[in-house]
Amino acid sequence: MFQNMVSAFTGGDGNKRRQVKGTVVLMKKNVLDFNDFSASLLDRLHEFLGKRVSLQLISAVNADPAGNGLKGKLGKPAYLEDWITTITPLTVGESAFKVTFDWDDEEIGTPGAFLIRNHHHSEFYLKSLTLEDVPGQGVIRFICNSWVYPADKYEKDRIFFSNKTYLPGETPGPLLKYREEELETLRGDGKGQLQEWDRVYDYAFYNDLGSPDKGPQHARPVLGGSSKYPYPRRGRTGRPPTKSDPNSESRLNLALSLDIYVPRDERFGHLKLADFLAYALKSIVQVLKPELESLSDSTPNEFDSFEDVLKLYEGGIEVPEGLLRDVRDNIPGEMLKEIFRTDGERFLKFPMPQVIAVDKSAWITDEEFTREMLAGINPVIISSLQEFPPASKLDHKVYGDHGSKIAKEDIENNLDGLTVDEAIREKKLFILDHHDTVMPYLRRINSTSTKTYASRTVMFLQNNGTLKPLAIELSLPHPEGDQHGAISKVCVPAEQGVENSIWQLAKAYVAVVDSGYHQLISHWLHTHAVIEPFIIASNRQLSVLHPIHKLLHPHFRDTMNINGLARQILINAGGALESTVCPNKYSMEFSSFHYKDWVFPEQALPEDLVKRGMAVEDSTSPYGLRLLIEDYPYAVDGLEIWFAIKTWVQDFCSFYYKDDDSVKKDSELQSWWKEIKEVGHGDKKDEPWWPKMQSREELIETCTIIIWIASALHAAINFGQYPFGGYPPNRPSISRRFIPEIGTPEYNELVENPEKAFLKTVTSQFQAVLGISLVEILSRHSTDEVYLGQRDTQHWTSDAEALEAFEKFGSKLAGIEERILKRNNDEKLRNRFGPVKMPYTLLYPTSEGGITGMGIPNSVSI
Question: What predicted TM-score, i.e. pTM, was given to this entire model?
Fold first, then answer.
């Protein structure tokens, strides 16, 4: 009997056997998954029939002789306990399960990974596995954060690694093959249409924006893969080609589905706003757009006065009963109030935009017009004017003479006694130049319903730190052909009369072009589109065990999903963006034209500021840069954020890479960088400016740029869209007619009723309501947002040094928040609040949910 007791304890062969307890945390259903009830019942039935969820530990120290010693030993299967009593058909949110592993010290030793098989009917979201009291190890954590589908959906069992971090050459031998195989799975084979449970990250051109089968007017060029239309790559879906164009990919039927393929773990999280976004955008495009076109007041589809526009926020505009009925049929009930705020009444009402919250008319001042170039939603274009008159870089042989027609006598009387040459020498002249950026496409743009100009706005830096506009040049292509140059009109400030009305129109045309450039280039192209190849390459080439994967992964959250959604309903042919920005049907090829000028190293904020002449190198100034406009809120706050990110990245990378040689020898890192250059951004693979990735300094700068683009740059140009652009007269995105000529009825109207003439020139009522609806959604923070300096789990790595460096990063960001608030309370810094009394908070790191005009999320998640 004594011998039997010893065998039970030792397993009969002298090895120590014991049990190790674990806790699995998973989430079974989405908050808005109304169809999950029956699936949950089927899962309970599978559990009852013995089709359970099993886990097997994988040794990080002991190889399995049966597999030629290439893989770690597998432990015995263990099963999630008490599923039926833990999860009911009504269970929502996280659930914790116990799991008990039989332990053999010589078999497992130290577990470095585990396999999981889901034999249920439906998928679940696996958050983590925590092992308690592991012999000789204590607590071991596996951070999973992944959807696990039924086992029959996978060719290989799902594997999750512990939160250890290893460079490829330092990976424990028994885990190395598992590490390599997991990356092979994520790369896929490049074939077939991908399904929702697939985990494949692969590349494709932007060939799914048009619907050529509907007719030529619905076709759009393929972006990417050509010198004419270069573009970053997107995630592959594998949908079949269209019938009429084999190079174009077929699109989903919007009426049936928004379920465009992205790898399942790239989909939005669980909370309400993510799902609300998808439903709301779909409703705007499919339901609101055609219905709102019928809205009218005394003049169909027009606002008659600025007071009419204010009704959108103060009283609302009446919504036809048919529209409400259509919306109720298409949108879940709890979302209806969020979209319309009707409180049961038939009035469409929006929240008050910050730009008019304190003063309803300060937006129209010249000071606010120029301030928003420094502290608005597109503060990345303004540059120092270093020659006069402003020159053009357009090819003279193709476009003729495009030099500026602004003359010294147009501006010299407003330079506080300086001559133009003196003002340039003292670096007091600045320009918002949208001439060369727009002119090559302007003839095509104006062939649509849009009627606008290429523009140059010249400004003078006053002693109080604010900018004074001196002149606006509005240009059109020469009617006899591009090679004949431009036809230009120069407008100067005027205080009253029709000259003032024309000046206000000129500022509106500048805003229209700047809005289009902002939305398509600064926002979509320079953040959303350029980041996607980095996300794809990181998942294909960097194991979850890799330090750079752990560093960058939070900054990729939800981006592929929002980009996929955008291709389906926003940037596609006839999508909402074409209806609300001036390039109209040429919007996306316009962005392709400007991708030619994208230079990765120049996305670093210090490089960008120096290139635009907004800063000069100065060893005596903070960060080695002196700003030419000291009160440049985007740059002042941005430099603090940039260098906080860079310090964090340097601390992190220096812990794992002790020298340049370790960077060169990192096989995964080198494959990652090669793929980004040659495939993800393949149309730019021959550019000489790509970092070589041969030194630690290059790695640190590269990762800093990636994090900056995905977090702070996106925040600065996205979350002010509603605070500034929610009031269309301040930020019109479309103009529909040119400046009226003397002697025309339109000119007479401009003299007699300048407000009405202004509003008839810019965005129509329908376009305004559609645009406001979009920017309201796109300016919202979700309630589960994760901000810069935060992680969604505190156990994202087991390395104490990395955790300490991250904590230091968070403390540094908290200090930046305090300094931003202090600057915003300094009345001498007029550009920080302006005539509209709206403090600059777009680079304030944290925020509450909703439309706040502040907060830097980790990623491009909306």
Answer: 0.94
